[in-house]
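Thread: Newbie trying to understand structure tokens

Hi all, I'm a second-year student working on a class project, and my supervisor (Dr. K.) asked me to get a predicted structure for one chain before our next meeting. I've only ever worked with sequences, so writing a 3D structure as a token string is new to me. If someone could post the tokens and maybe explain what I'm looking at, I'd be very grateful. Here's the chain:
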Amino acid sequence: MMSLTTKTFHLISLGCAKNTVDSDSMAQLLINAEFAPTDESRNAEVLIVNTCGFIGPAKDESIQTLKDLAAEKKTGQVLIAAGCLTQRYGQQVVEQVPGIDGILGTRRWMDILAVVSQLRGGAHPEPLYHLPDVANVGRDDAGTQRVNVQGGSAYLKIADGCRRPCAFCAIPLIKGTAISRPIEAILADARALQEMGVYEINLIAQDTTDYGHDLSMRNGLATLLDELSAAVPDVPWLRVLYAYPGYVTDELIEVMAENPQVLPYLDMPLQHAHPDTLRRMRRPANMNWVYRTLEKMRATMPDLALRTTFIVGYPGETDAEFKALMDFIEEIKFDRVGAFQFSFEPGTASENLGDPVPEAVKQARWEQLMERQQAISLARNQRLVGASLDVLIEGQGDGISLGRSYRDAPEIDGMVIVEDDLPIGAMAPVRITGAMPYDLTGILDTAQEI
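---
Reply by user tm_fold:
Sure, no problem. This is what the structure looks like when written as tokens:
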């Protein structure tokens, strides 16, 4: 039997890119304390799962991952459950998964060393809890970079938490209100990424358009983008994710349009298109603003790629409301759409609405929306055949390379399939030769240099 290697850790990160950044920050702290990461859970002294607790399926995945590790845990190993699920359901998680030794909440990821030290220090008959009051958390990067690097691309977290009142969302309960990172800290992280040779920086937060509000900044995101582009002139792609409707200002549009580093790409989750549904969601319901803003952005940035997200089957969604949503996506013709079926979340403002829309209706509406959007996405992609796009290469083999254009955010959008073996991490010019609903195909554009 293999023995444990002391001062080693095995970390599993579940959920969104924001969670992944927190996981990488915990790993940085452990490595700085001379712990070594390992991909083999059976050999690690410290087992960590950074959980997701946003919706039901994510909770189930987190619980199952913890159960799997707990079932195989050996003498001398400690198991720590961190992140969103544990922040919200700490005691329940312990009851469901015997064998957990430590519980670490969302906004105290920087306490990982203290938790590990205490657990390694002796017997721990009861789980050790580090659960903060998310209403009273401050700014603390613990001296770490708040980034996650994947090849030539990186996520950079600019804020955490959310102050929006969305009725269906548990994030404010889990993360607390929005707290922006100081702009100097963000710029320092960006400079470090530039030194690594990163081609793409994806700015992430629960709501990037709220950046700087708590720092008394006006148009904080536009200001940040201006300063970032000056600070990292060698990073060609700066991408904005998770914009909130109503807060995409004229100043932000101007910065995006005039700065070639800021990609003409916007991920703005609208969640629905019928004002009555949006009001029940406690979301911005001014659809005139949506139409005006999207029209303004497309006029200013003709190559703009638009992504959004919708929820179908929200409590009270009528056939007429769903039809309005379908008419809206037909009219606007988004490049990318993500859709989810409503997931009932106890404790949220929507709890009193229940979950009255039958599952079969939710499924049928989801399928209808996605089928329609596939046709729209295909038509949008077909317009690019013959164009030359810069593609960030992320994989290759057997004469084929896979990468992303400016139109494709990592993990959520499509790929460009290139008929050539190109070096991973390179930015290559690709002539588009074919289109599918999600992906493009192409060949190296020999008229240009890599």
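A couple of things are worth pointing out once you decode it. The mean pLDDT is 93. The first strand starts at residue 5 and ends at 13. Feel free to ask follow-ups in this thread.
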